[in-house]
Every structure is written in structure tokens, then in C-alpha cells.
Write a structure and sequence with these properties.
Blueprint lengths: L1 H26 L18 H8 L15 H9 L3 H10 L1 H5 L6 H14 L5 H7 L3 E6 L5 E7 L6 E6 L19 H15 L5 E7 L9 H4 L2 H20 L4 E7 L1 H10 L7 E5 L17 E5 L31 E2 L17 H10 L11 H11 L2
Parallel strand pairs: 3-4, 3-5, 5-6, 6-7, 7-8
Antiparallel strand pairs: 1-2, 2-4
Length: about 375
């Protein structure tokens, strides 16, 4: 009874500001905002871009940071190792964030950037110290992508996409690690290692977009999701061209699921799309995502996100619950999830089921459902 009272209290605390924000959005004319993927993208500093574009040391034009990942990969495929090392040393801000550039080159560039940058927070610095980075941008609220595992050998690659109230300084938390992307990624990687020791896996905690703060307009509109979806699509396209043949999964939590929905509209690089605690994904069904990926969804009854209304008017609201029967997603078990961030809690069926999706247990002649795999995992570990 006490827990139900807390959930109801939390729901009321969300509903009141949400109603006010919706009214404000209507007043400001937000209802007619665009619903396609945004054109506004992150860009390096102008001086950094100028230095890159004016570099003639390779005797050929360097690719634009806005080129497609496949074009960028083609450029680097014809770049001698010594020349590549020089580009990393001279232009780390460009190479480190360049989707389609070689994985090792991005590691080297971002290692240099992180070492030269003041720590965003003690907890983030401690959490990422021993890991490679596929993205590091300390400007403003910051962006980062941390790799757990070996990308060179991984057959199954997971990109974990977080929701609201996350930035470089709040990327990790020691006291309640599952509240932050690094804690979720660490829990998933530990589950993969323990439950599937023969599988080669890597997990990327990706923070490549500006997340919403609190429950303001940004949280209920699509602007940040469109921008983030475009960034995420390029990121996974870059992984695909550098690491062909790997299974790539997006594991998307809360507002991160909205971002993943926008990415799914424009990339074909994803094999499995997992939507956890989603407030909606700005479409009414899996078919409207136009994705070749298998789409999975899980949302716990005791998660406060269930109290978010499942509608969309113009650019406000994110649409229906992806776990609804007529949405068409494959459902993951969440019965033992009791809070918004507990889908990644060790020992839960939800975490075990996500790991089953990541390693492809549902594919091939010996396939089984993630729910069945999670149940078997639970029995084995009793």
C-alpha cells in the first residue's frame, strides 16, 4: 500500500507541471512544429573546421564533417597509417567525432581530448578512466560515448541511449549508478559477460545529444529527439561501415526511446531496437518506423512513466505506449521492475531479456524468446 501511495503521489507531481507545460506549448504555437528529423546538428568550433578544411598536407581534400559515414570511411580506407596518425594528432576534435572514421583513430583522438580536458565531475572521470571513447566533446553540457568491451572482436554491439537529465558531468553516479548511462551500460555488460561468456560483446554508453532537463517543453516535444536521432543515425551508420557483419542493437531508455525512434526512421544499420520505459516514440505503430530492425518494448506497471498521456498533438507528446498490443512491438518481461531506472538492475528478468536480445538468442534454428531465456537464467541462478 505504501508503494502504491508513493507511485500515485509521483504521478500527481508529474501530471501538474505537464498540464501547465502543455498549455504553455499551445500558447506559444508549438502545435504546428515539424515532425521530421531535425537539420540542426552538432558542429565543431569554426576555427577547428577552418583548420581542417585548409589542411593540404595529404595532397587531397579532407572530407567534410557533414559527409555521409560511408564517404568518410572511403577516404580513410585510402589513407596511409602515418598520414592517419598525423591527422589524429593535428585534428583530434574532428577525427574523434567523425562517424565513419576508423575505430582506433577515434579512440586515439578522444583519448587525447579527454586527457587535455578538465574533469567534468569526479564520478564521470573515475567511471571512464579505463575505457576507450568513441566521442568526447566537453563543450557546453558535453557529449561522450564510452566503450565497454572489445570493438575489434565483438560480434554483438550494443548502443545504450539514455533519457533526460544527463550530461557529461552527470554521466556516472557512484551512489545510485543505475540512474546514469554509465551504470546502466556497466550492468548490461556484466550481464552479457556472466550469462553469455562464449559471446563476444561490446556495449557503448552513448551521450551524443542534448538531453531534456526536467519536465519542461523539451521533454514533451520532439526537437531534441530529432536532433539526437540524426546524430545517433550517423553514429550507428559509422559503426556499420567500419564493422560490417556485426549485430547492432539500440537499447533505449525513457526519452532515449524517442531519440531512437527518430533514428530508426533514417538508418538501416540497426538489427534490434529495444524501447524501455518509453513515453512513446512519435509514431503509432512499428510499421510507421519503416525499419528493418526487430522492435522490442518493455514498460513496468509501477514505473511513473505509465502516467504520461499517450497522445501527440503536433509536436507535443510522443504518442502511444510501445507496449500496447496494437503498436506491434515484441514484449519484454518487466514484472520484477519496480522503478524507472530498474530495468537494468542485476537479477531482473528485464536485464536478462535485454541481454538475450543483444546476443541474438531469438535468431536462427535454436531461437528462443528473450522472456524464455530470462526465465531460464532466473532458474539457473537461484
Amino acid at each position: 500500500m505504501r508503494r502504491k501511495t508513493r507511485v500515485a503521489r509521483r504521478a500527481r507531481s508529474i501530471a501538474r507541471p505537464l498540464a501547465g507545460v502543455i498549455g504553455l506549448g499551445a500558447t506559444l504555437g508549438m502545435l504546428a512544429a515539424p515532425t521530421s528529423v531535425a537539420a540542426d546538428r552538432y558542429a565543431p568550433q569554426a576555427s577547428v573546421v577552418t583548420a581542417w578544411e585548409s589542411d593540404r598536407s595529404t595532397n587531397r581534400s579532407l572530407p567534410s564533417p557533414h559527409d555521409e559515414p560511408a564517404e568518410i570511411a572511403g577516404f580513410f580506407a585510402a589513407t596511409p597509417p602515418a598520414e592517419l596518425r598525423r591527422l589524429v594528432r593535428t585534428h583530434p576534435e574532428i577525427v574523434g567525432a567523425l562517424d565513419g572514421a576508423p575505430i582506433g583513430a577515434r579512440y586515439a583522438a578522444n583519448r587525447r581530448l579527454s586527457e587535455e580536458s578538465a574533469p567534468a565531475s569526479v564520478e564521470t572521470e573515475a567511471a571512464i578512466r579505463d575505457h576507450e571513447l568513441l566521442l568526447f566533446d566537453p563543450r557546453e553540457r558535453g557529449r561522450i560515448a564510452v566503450v565497454l568491451g572489445d570493438m575489434d572482436t565483438a560480434e554483438h554491439i550494443t548502443v545504450l541511449v539514455p533519457g533526460s537529465d544527463v550530461d557529461l558531468a552527470r554521466f556516472a553516479e557512484a551512489e545510485s549508478p543505475l540512474r546514469k548511462p554509465m551504470g546502466k551500460a556497466t550492468a548490461l555488460h556484466a550481464e552479457l559477460t556472466a550469462a553469455h561468456p562464449t559471446k563476444q560483446t561490446a556495449v557503448i554508453a552513448w551521450l551524443g545529444y542534448q538531453t531534456p532537463e526536467g519536465l519542461g517543453l523539451d521533454a514533451i516535444s520532439g526537437s531534441l529527439a530529432r536532433q539526437g536521432g540524426a546524430e545517433l543515425a550517423d553514429f550507428v551508420d559509422g559503426l556499420r561501415v567500419q564493422l560490417p557483419g556485426r549485430q547492432i542493437s539500440l537499447i533505449c531508455h525513457s526519452y532515449g526511446a524517442v531519440v531512437c525512434g527518430q533514428a530508426a526512421l533514417v538508418t538501416s544499420a540497426v538489427d534490434d531496437l529495444v524501447l524501455l520505459a518509453a513515453p512513446g516514440v512519435r509514431v503509432d505503430s512499428v510499421d510507421e518506423l519503416h525499419t528493418r530492425a526487430r522492435v522490442w518494448a518493455g514498460r513496468a506497471d509501477e514505473d511513473w512513466i505509465t502516467h504520461i498521456p499517450g497522445w501527440r498533438i503536433g509536436d507535443l507528446g510522443h504518442g502511444p505506449d510501445p507496449t500496447a498490443a496494437d503498436f506491434g512491438a515484441r514484449i519484454l518481461p518487466t514484472e520484477d521492475v519496480t522503478a524507472h531506472d530498474d530495468y537494468f538492475a542485476p537479477g531482473t528478468d528485464s536485464l536478462a531479456a535485454v541481454a538475450e536480445v543483444v546476443v541474438g538468442s531469438h535468431i536462427g534454428p535454436q531461437a528462443e524468446s528473450p522472456a524464455a531465456g530470462a526465465a531460464q537464467h532466473r532458474e539457473t541462478n537461484r
